[in-house]
Structure formats: C-alpha cells, structure tokens
Amino acid sequence: MTYDIFLALVAFAFVSSITPGPNNLMLMASGANFGFRRTIPHMLGIGLGFTFMVLLVGAGLVQVFDAYPISYLVLKAASVVYLLYLAWKIAHAAPAQRHAGASHPMSFFQAAAFQWVNPKAWAMALTATTAYAPGQTVNAILLVALIFGLINLPSVSTWTVLGQQMARILTNPRRLTVFNWTMAALLVASLYPVLWPV
Length: 198
Known about the structure:
Number of helices: 9
Structural class: mainly alpha
Helix content: over 70%
Radius of gyration: 17 Å
Shape: globular
Largest sheet: none
Order of helices and strands: HHHHHHHHH
Strand content: under 5%
Distance between the termini: 31 Å
Number of domains: 1
C-alpha cells in the first residue's frame, strides 16, 4: 500500500466513522439516557464488531452473497425491521435512574451483531476493502481492519460524550422524550439509502 493510499484510507476511516449514521445516533441516545460508563460495552461492540466485519468482508464474504442474490434482499429486510425496532426502543427509553431495571443500554454482543444489519457499516466495509486493499491480499485487509479499529472507537466515543453532555439539558422528562423521539426519527431516516438507493 502506497503512502497516498494509506492517507486516503485514514481519511475515509475517520470521515465515515465520525459522520452520523445508525451507530452514532444510537450512541448519542445511549450517552444521554445511560451515561458514558454504561455505554462502554456498546462502543466496544461497534469498534470490534465492525473491525471483524471488515476482515470477513475482505476475506471474501461478499462472494457468498453474490452466489445467492436472495441473501441481499433478506439482509435488507432484516436491516429495516431491526432498525425500526431499535428506533421504537429509543423513542420509548425511560431515564435510567427512574427505571433502572426496565431499561438497559445495548450490550457488547448486541452492538457487534448489529453491524451485520447496519446499512452504513456494510457500505463502509465494502468500500474500504475494495478501494483500499489492493489485490485483496491478507496484509492489505489486515491493515484496513486495523486502521478502522484504531480510528472507529475514538470517533464513535465522541457521539457518546455528546449525548452525555446533552443529558445536562435533558433533565426535564419532556425534553428527554422529545430528544429520544428525535433520535428515533433520525434513525428511521437513515434507512432512506436502503429503501430508495440512488
């Protein structure tokens, strides 16, 4: 991998990791509702889960989907259904201190598994492995996954901190409800590229 390609990969990893998407919207909502510490497993699940996804996509997982085209439709349907479910959960989230036993942040494994139905994660993994792993060699794929792993976690953590800071103005239950419904609506809006691809 040349120096220019490496710099382009770092820039792509940062921009795609820090910009709004299902992961970051959910982390901001989790930071506001549960705080930073309780959202750490969610952040780690995203960072490590996506890194593992890049490795598998780079290793040829896409060829399996190409061999069975119906799998794309199944994946799209699963993405839509699960994102709508998560949007509903966010919209109806209760303040953690009021309903400690009824409301929980996403776990490590839930967040890692979510990457497989996250449309933005698929787009990022496919672009990263095809554009920045010349020849699809093992070393190139490992480097792409490593770069994403190193950049993704601090990037997504920013959204949790943002949500945690917003919690200071969301002390009123009405404001928190409006915030949660707004996050849910934005999460549903993130389905636009899946339902109506350009």
